[in-house]
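Hey all, sorry for the wall of text incoming. These are the three entities for the joint prediction.
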Amino acid sequence: MANLHGYLLLGAMLFGLGLVGFLARRNLIVIFLSAELMLQGVVLNLVGFGRFHRDLDGQAFAGFILVIAAVEAGLGLALAVLLLRRKGTPDVEAWRALRG
Amino acid sequence: MRHALRWIVMAGVWSALAGTAWGAEAPVPPAESSSTILEAIAFYAMAAVALLSGLAILVSRNLVRNVVCLLAALGAVAGLYFLLAANLLGAIQLIVYAGGTLVLITFGVMLTSRPGSDRQLVRGWERIAGGVVCVTLFIGLCMVLLCTEWATVAASAEPTTVAAVGRALLTDYLVPFELASVLLLVMLIGAAYLVRRDGESGAEDDADRC
Amino acid sequence: MTELTTEFWFPPAGQLGWFAPELALIATIVAVVAVPIILGRRARLSACVALLGVVAALLLTGDVGRRVAEEAAAGLAPPGAPPMLIADNFAVFFKAFLLLFLTLVTVLWLFGLTGRRPALARRFAAHSVEFFVLLLGSALGMMVMVSTLNLLMIILAIELASLPSYALAGYDKRDPAGAEASLKYVLFGAVTAAITLYGVSLLYGAFGTLDIPTIAAAMAGGGAGVGAALGLLGLCVGIGFKISAVPFHFWCPDVFEGATIEVATWLSVASKAAGLGLLLRVVTAMGSLDDALAITVGIVATATCTLANFAAYRQQNVKRILAYSSIAHAGYMLMAAAVFVPAASEAEPNLAASALLLYLLTYLFMNFGVFAATACVEWETGSSALSNFIGLGRRAPWLAVPMAVCLLSLVGLPPLGGFLAKWWLLVALGSGAAEHDRLWGLVLVLVLNTLFSLYYYLRIIYMMFLRTEWSRPAPLAPHVGGLVLVNACAVVLLLFGTLGARAVKLLADEYAVHLYAAPLARAAAALVP
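and here's what came out:
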């Protein structure tokens, strides 16, 4: 089943696992790991489609997504370190002063 | 902790080296071979590794284990890129992602890990209800993916994708390429600003902690 | 391998000239980083360099606008491919709009250096370079957002607009509220970005291209499957996040409350304007989808303004009230998009587009006025809690009166610009309702919501003028520059509503005409030498 549908299903599963992890975990680092997993699902989709469309758009787009993912990871880590310095925990639930 | 770090850095370096070697040397699989047994086995093996690692990230409470699992998942997905004849992308994934970003994340883990900070957000009936909703949505998505008629093109002779993608990046995709460079510059400065401890107020920063 | 060097494409200067404002902004980013290396790190210096660059970009936009008026439209595209960037009337309007607002925000930041208490001001001054690099970066992203129809460019532009905003929200690192705002913004942004990307990957899969007009043509030809619809939905999630339309608005109040006032001001207008510009572009290109898309946009608009207006009732912080107010106004402007969809193909000045542009222009001034007034209070008292506004009418009449004018304009009361904006929106909705009865629902929603919103805007005015405290609060000495800005905004709003009403309408009409009369086919034709 190594055809297009196989890659699409795998991409959807990776995306779904990442999404669930993103929503269910409270550790900031794990949340960003899950975001990376989601983006891997997207990239797999794009490369799969690109292969079966026989053009380069998919691969080029995927390259740009890797850039975006790296930037996001960098920002997320910077933020994690900043937050940790303030409250001493990477737990996102510790931050709930703003509400109303 | 230090051993784990060293181990992961080594793993990143080695997988990067192996990936570049493979990416440069790997023959492009002929397009008609998409149903060969070998390719199917490779696909299933790497898909299984990716999925199991993804699942492990979701359930494991150990941060270092999470990162290593992500490394495995990234490696497996990179293998799938090679399988899809996206050699350049596979190599980039191994070098930049597994070798670079993941090491960065490892540093983040080492800097931020504290005991007792990795509980699950949802509990009890919320978990069951959330699970039901997720599974339903996921099945719906899979139905859509399987039922849609994706516009696929008949197989033909494949160009060497590394050169072709490289050329595309500097012709068709020159504008987004430059825009991405601006994004990287801006966010480099932004992220550096966020983590930097201000010289004069470093002591106060520590005092501010709750 | 040898052909690599021969096929390198460098955009010709003629094509690049259309995008001089963007290039000027990039040059400004570099200058903001480079100048302090030579002349030393001084806050005013960075602000002045940024201001200079932004004004230069604004002037260049005027020049491009003149050329666009003569030659219709142009694009930046590799040979034989659809354009990556588009320069047309629509893009010129939004670029000028964003740059004008960027100028105002920069001036506000400059005033904040002297307006704030010294200790706080020093902290802000120390990181001026980072602030302006991030601010200019997000401005560049928003400018690209409104001038492209390529999915890859859209994604990159949304990211370039969002990622610096996440860092800006946490700009004051010593303030825990800022850190929390940044955290919530980045978490919400990361998940919407991933969903958007997934949707875009499905769109690419369904049509094999990243060019939206090509996709729209394929969709019109009956190629729209469930997968493509899902992809389009994903793209709309990303745009909705930028506009803060209702299911994706949760970040907005928290970020506005936690971020510094200058950043909140910037996000309140620029992020929504760029999102609306992108939405209108996509909707124009997808004109064939009419009904389903129009109804969805209408429902989202209704939910957005209604929920925001009700949520604003129980807020105790002026920045939070203004956040909900800005969400509600985003809902009103989305209504224009909902009318606009069915009439996409018409060549004459589009009532809805003109109404939207006019609304945005007025919204810029009324929102900036209120935020600048709040900034003056926050600089003096240290917080923007509603209780700090008690008795402001006596403590600082030159601040309270223009702020009240801006608030009344946000409500939409007659002699002010806000009334005119709502009036033309109603006219557009009414004329659309002549064809589609369902649009009467939106007319009703708009009128009812204006009534609902009266309460919380008047609550601030009541606090400022009528509420008497038993302990008499000290008089306030607001920053002079801030006072000038707020009063100028109030005067502009008065002009918009009275003498200048006709001129503003004509301006909006002018930019609404060429927008659809110059479709992308012509833009594509213009680039073939």
